[in-house]
Amino acid sequence: MADNTNNRAPEINDIQSDIVSAAAAKPKGLNIPYERRKQLYGYGFIALWFVGSIYFFIAPLIQSLIYSFHQTKIVTGGMQMSNPGFKNYYNAFRKDQYYVPALTAMIKDTLLNTPLIIVFSVFIAVILNQKFKGRTAARAIFFLPVIIATGPVIDIINGNMSTGGYAGGSEQFSTMFETNLVDDLLNFLGIYNISDKLTNVISTLTSDIMNLIWKCGIQIILFLSALQGIPYSAKEAASMEGATSWEYFWKITVPYISPILISALVYTIVDSFVDPSNDVMTLVLNQSKQWEHGYSAAMAWAYFAIVGAILAVVLAVINRFVYYEVE
Amino acid sequence: MATKKEERIFEKERRKSQKARMARMKKDGLDKYFTPDQIRYNRNRRIIGAVWPFFRGLILFGLGFVIMYPLLFMLSTAFRPNEQMNDPSIVWLPKSFTWNNIHETATVMKFNYWDAAHPFHNTVLNTILLNVVSSVLQVITCSITGYGFARFKFKGRNVLFAIVLLMIIVPPQITTIPLYLQFAYFKLFGIIPLYDAKGEPLSIINTGLTMYLPALFANGIKAGLFIYIFRQFFRGLPKELEDAAYLDGCGPFETYVKIMIPNAKTSFLTVFLFSIVWYWNDFYVSSSFFTENNTVALMLKNLDATLQQQLFDGQTVSVRQIIVWLESGCLLAITPLLIMYTFLQKYFVEGVERSGLTGM
Known about the structure:
Shape of chain A: globular
Oligomer: heterodimer
Distance between the termini of chain A: 36 Å
Order of helices and strands of chain A: HHHEEHHHHHHHHHHHH
CATH superfamily of the largest domain in chain A: MetI-like
Number of domains of chain A: 2
Largest sheet of chain A: 2 strands, antiparallel
CATH class of the largest domain in chain A: Mainly Alpha
Number of strands of chain A: 2
Strand content of chain A: under 5%
Number of helices of chain B: 15
CATH topology of the largest domain in chain B: MetI-like fold
Radius of gyration of chain B: 29 Å
Helix content of chain A: over 70%
CATH architecture of the largest domain in chain B: Orthogonal Bundle
C-alpha cells in the first residue's frame, strides 16, 4: 500500500504493475479479493446478533410452537410434553367461550382504530411542521405519550389495575367530552340520531378519544420526519403554480409521505395487537398463569398467524398506492 | 453566511419592500398587474393566513389538553389529602397540600430504602443500573448488527434480515415461557449444563443477567426495531466514506469505530434514550423473569396490592380509596423520565427524524 501511494508513476502500465506487485507482496492468507473479504466481514458484524437470536429468539419461538401441539406439564428440569396433536387449537376455537369473541372484537377494534390513528397523526404532524410560536412546546406535549404510554402508568390512568373498578382518567375525561360536547355538536349540526348505527359509531369513537390520541406519539414522529424530507423545490414549484393548501396537501404532501405510511401502519397494527392489556393477550397470559402453557401457546400462535395474515393483506393493498421517488 | 440576527433583519426588509410594492400596485389598480385568477388566489391565501393560526391554536390547545389531562389530574391528586378526595367542592385545586402521600408511597415502593450493604435493594438505583447497563449493551450491539446489514453484501442477507423483521412483529409473550425455562436451567452456549454451589442446576432468574445477556447479544427489548433504525441510518451515509477509509488502510471494524460511530452520534443517543424509556417502562418481560428483583415498573404494577398490605393491614379497599397513593406512585415513576425528557427532548424528536427512518 505504502509503495503504491509514494510512487506516483504517470504511466497507466506502471500503476497497474504497482498494484499487481502490492497484491503479490501481501501475506498469503489475506489473498482474498476485497469483495469476498467484505462479505466475510459482513458475517462477522452480524455474528453476535445471529448467535443471540438463535438462543434468545428462534429457539424459544420453535419451542413454543412445539408446546402448542402438546399437553404440557412443568417438571423439574423443564417441560414435560404428552398427547401430540391439534387438540389445543381445536379447544381454542371450538370449546373456549371467550377466545373467538375476544379475537373478533380485537380485529374489529384494530381495523377501526388504525385508519383513525393514521389520519389523526398525519393531521397533527402537518400542523406541527408549520412555523408558529411555541412549536417546540407543542411538539414536546404531543410526543409525551411516547414516553409514558408504554409503561404501567397508562394502566392506572385508564383504571385497568388488577383490582379494577376505578373510573380512571380516560373514562372520566371521555364521558365529560362525549356527553357535553359531541352530542351538542351533533344536535347543532342536526344529525343527532339520524340512525342508531351512526350514533353508535360516533360514540365509540369519542368514548375512546383519549386512548386514540395517546397512541399517536410514534406515528406523529414518523410522519413529521417524512414531512421534513419533502424537498424545498417541490414546495416552491407548487406555490409558483398557484396551488392552494388543500391541493398542496393532496398532490405534494401525501405522495411524499406515503412511503412512511407503511411503517406507521405496521407499527400501529403490531402495537395494538401485542398490547398486553388487550383482551386476547389477557386470555393468553391468564392461561399461562394457570400453567396451561401448551394451550396458551396455541392461542398465541393462532392469534399471531391471524395478525400476520392481516398485516400481509394490508401491506399488499397499501403498497400499490405508495409513491416512491425515483432517484 | 449571514448570522441568524442578520437574516432576521433581511427578512424584515424583504417584507417591508414587498408591502411597499403591494401598496404601489394597489394605487395603480391591481388589474394592471394580475389576472383575476391571481387576485382571487392571493386574497384567499391572505384570508386563510389570517384565520388558520387561530384554528390551529384552538386545535393544538384542545388536543394538548387531552394529553395533559391525566398528568394534571396526577399532580392534583398526588398532593391532596385523602379526605379531600370525596369533597365535591374540589375539582382541581385542593384546599391544602400535603407531602404525606408521596412520602408514604415512596416508602411502599422502596424509593427511599437505604441499606449500605445492599445499595441495589433500593428500587430506583436497581432500575437505573438495569436500564443503563442493558441500554448501553443494546445500543452497541444493535448498531454493529445494523451496520453489518446496511453496508455488507453477503449470501443470505435477506433471509437473515427477515428474522430481524420477525423480531419486530412477534410479541414477547410468545417466547417468554420457553425463555424462562432456558434461564431457569441455564446452560452455557445452550449445551453445557451449569450447576451452582449446592449442585442444583444454575438458575439466572431474578438476576440482572436475564436482562443483560439478551441485550449483549442484540436481542433485548425492542432490539429488532433498533437494528432496523441503525440499518436505515447507516444506509443513508455516503459510500465514499468507507472507500476513503479503506484506501487509508482502515479495516472494516476500524472504519466502523473511527468513521461511522462519530457520524452516527445523534442516532446513537436517540436509540439509547428510547432504549432507556422502554426498559424503564417494561413490566411484562421483567415480571416474567423477576420475582424478587424490584424495578420501578413492577412496583407500580403491583402498587395497589402492596398498598393494601402495608397501609390497610390487608383489608380489601376500593381503588377510589387509595387513588391518591396510586397517583403519587405514577408521579414518582414518571418523574425521572420527565426530567430526562425535558432536557433531551430535542434528541428524542430530531434524532428520529435524522436517523433516516424516512427512507424506507
